[in-house]
């Protein structure tokens, strides 16, 4: 029997993007500590459930920042896991590739850190199961070569063989260690823990090849519950993932239909029961009152909603837009299994943005669209143009 946690893309210390300068003070602390709190919740769960391993397949850190606070919080978490007899396994991805080249504080003996070459580490769990883990770390941000050919086939003499891989499905030579899914499955591993895509999804089921998404949504395109997979061998059916949410701050899209005026809209938001601190992306559909239309047209709608929020409310509006009836009618019919937003997010990456931008574009424009905030904004606007008719008060 084996149980472990698959937690991709923790992004410790990440500053949220897409928030206005006047963020409510009661939200500031929640936002500043969100990634740390999510990690603490994961550790508490891991200890309580007595799991054998925690797999971190890349982007455990947000970047090269090795600040004392980040190191202190991470070392504390790893020590708690070690004291509970749990093995953390860490590889570095495109955001934290530099961490693999930096000096870190002494971590507990049970911490498994993977270097730039694909390597396999073998452990024995408390129950006596022998587990092999194969992984590698990035040496640069793009990592344009697939690492999959260097992964060995399933190791003989072990009960389970797990793979950690930070990358995307694609052709060898493309960014982010692009790999072939059939080739990955052919390795014969019992589970592949993927990182890089911040959307929870299972690419293959027997064996499972999956992205756990990230622990905490980092911008308005990462709405909905975020967390990790608890993976266990259930009744001899192989390793099966089960999702558990831990994000302390939720990004949530809220639709309100046929709102007659701004006062009614403000009242509805203040009266709603928010179960946790929530950053709201508001979409107004159907008919809206003239004062709402005017506020949207003059760019004051969002500020009005922020100003009217009750001080003790667990929500903060970060975006407000009118989606007209005409725009709704123009929405194309999509296959039920197509997640258009997820597809757009995968396309809008630094490498693709670089190809779209003219070399003559001013530096500040290029810098913006190379940033996570710029890419998130571009993905959001592409979605609006394709599905929502391009209606946006900005």
UniProtKB/TrEMBL annotation:
Residue ranges annotated for the Calcineurin-like phosphoesterase domain, each copy included: 3-199
Molecular function as annotated in GO: exonuclease activity
CDD domains: MPP_Mre11_N
Superkingdom to which the source organism belongs: Bacteria
Record's keyword terms, sorted: Exonuclease, Hydrolase, Nuclease
PANTHER family the UniProt entry points to: COMPONENT OF ATP-DEPENDENT DSDNA EXONUCLEASE, PHOSPHOESTERASE
Entry protein name: DNA repair exonuclease SbcCD nuclease subunit (SbcD)
Organism this protein belongs to: Fructobacillus tropaeoli
